[in-house]
Amino acid sequence: MQEHFNQEIEDLKTSLIKMASLVDEQTGKAFAALETGKIELCENIKRKDLEIDSYDNLIQIQCENILALFQPVAVDLRFVISALMINNQLERCGDIAVNIAQRVKKTRDFHNLIADSQITEMGNNARKMLSNVIDSFIHNDLQLAKQVIENDEVVDQLNKKSFKFLVAKMKENPELIEPCSHLIVLTRHIERLADHATNIAENVVFYIEAKVIAHEKKLSRFNPDSNSVES
Amino acid sequence: MNESAKISVKDFNLFYGKKKALNNINIDIFEKRVTALIGPSGCGKSTFLRSLNRMNDLIKDVTISGEVLIDNLPIYSKDIDVVELRKKVGMIFQKSNPFPKSIYENVAYGPKINGIKNKNELDEIVEQSLIRAALWEEVKDDMNKNGLALSGGQQQRLCIARALAVNPEILLMDEPASALDPISTTKVEDLIFELKKNYTIVIVTHNMQQAARVSDTTAFFYMGELIEYSDTKKMFTSPDKKQTEDYIRGRFG
After folding, report:
1. Cβ A69–B213 below 8 Å, yes or no?
2. What is the nearest CA distance from A10 to chain B, expressed in angstroms?
3. Which residues on chain B are in Cβ contact (under 8 Å) with A5?
């Protein structure tokens, strides 16, 4: 049932692309508000997140139907499994966009802190990772997916720098404890966004190459001879 | 399923002699949809399929009660012309059964006995039927070849073309792909998907995956009863009845 099946797969792909572009739009708005302090940019962000949540449900049902009706194998099976996992990650990215927007009100009077702590740079990197990983999924671009995974390190480094910078600021001036605390939570959100993009990239690698590469580094540090559990 | 029923079956019972093979079947089959009938051997699904164009009339000792309405007309009524009924409700069997004649004659046979003599008109019907059956491209340069010389998958599509040539509205298919290899099966399944744009299709299949792949609605029969009938997606993800779930999970009995 090639034609029918292909149509279902295309529909699933379309849902994922629509969901991903909504997530991109939402994170874009949240970061723009953070940079400019214009809260009005995030006015509808919570309501819009409901659309992302609806896609989350829709995609889950689409995947269930494809698995139940067509019993896909090989690359088709990996596509559906990846779609389920990417769906999950995207939904969380949507939530993070809302979380970031909610911090804007509390941090908007501290522009200099935001600029000096490299939060903007961190945010730009995380967003770029997210949009690149979606492109890699749509275009089956393995190299781009691997590049996203490497970029996570950049965001992690920026996160550490931000943290140190903000802690130093708090020590310098206790009046900055509150805004700096908000900004630390914010950097945590951004760091999570990059992690989700990395997870999606790992799903893309799984889809294209049939290799499970999640936790590879950690596992090899723990047990250099093997990165898999004995089965 | 708020659609108009092409076939409406009401309180339908069928006996082979004293043995009840179908017990009080009530079902509406919708226009331009594929409805799959599934169930274990002997559950009555093929008997039910054959009831829809009165093929069971040919079997001795068959008695029925209840009604089968097609386009609101009771097909078991005395004034129904069975030949006309079977023109409207075509049938495809498990084993392809082309006539030992040329491809062209196989398809032209029905229209000819229905009185069409004009060569151009016949040519047009044959071509259109073969196109609809997704066989035209493979046979158009070899129309005089004997139908029996085609491959199994092609023979089955030839039988579908032959059924289409008399302009039916409903196609009954009894395990149409069970004797075919996977590639021919895919072709026949793709064809079914295409045909439902113009025809109402009822298909009996032992292959549950096939029912899942090709149909819009699925009816599960067991021991002569219609146990569950619903949207195929629902049937294969969250059926209402435990018997259905056990059957589709392969954990029956």
Report:
1. yes
2. 16
3. 213
| Distance in Å, alpha carbon of B30 to nearest chain A alpha carbon | 20
Residue B120 burial by CB count (10 A; 0-12/13-18/19+): exposed, middle or buried?
Answer: exposed
Q: What is the pLDDT of residue A106?
A: 87
ipTM beyond cut 0.85: no
**Cβ B237–A65 below 8 Å, yes or no?**
yes
| Tens-digit pLDDT profile for residues A28-55 | 999 999 888 888 888 889 999 999 999 9
Chain-chain contact of A1 with B232 (C-beta, under 8 angstroms): no
Question: Do B236 and A68 lie within an 8 Å CB cutoff?
Answer: yes
Say yes or no: B190 contacts chain A, CB-CB below 8 A: yes
CB contact under 8 A, A4 and B212: no
Domain count, chain A: 1
**Model-level pTM?**
0.82
Instruction: Say which of A2, A64, A69 has its CB closest to residue B186.
Output: A2
CB B133 within 8 A of CB B191: yes
Q: Provide the residue range defining the domain that includes A67.
A: 2-230
Lookup: tokens for A128: 């770029």
3-state DSSP call for residue A25? helix
CATH number of the domain within which A139 lies: 1.20.58.220
Q: Give the tokens for residue A26.
A: 């939402």
Contact A1 B236 (CB under 8 A): no
Kindly identify which residue of chain B lies nearest to residue A8, measuring between CA atoms.
B213
For residue B186, which phi and psi values (nearest 5 degrees)? -60, -40
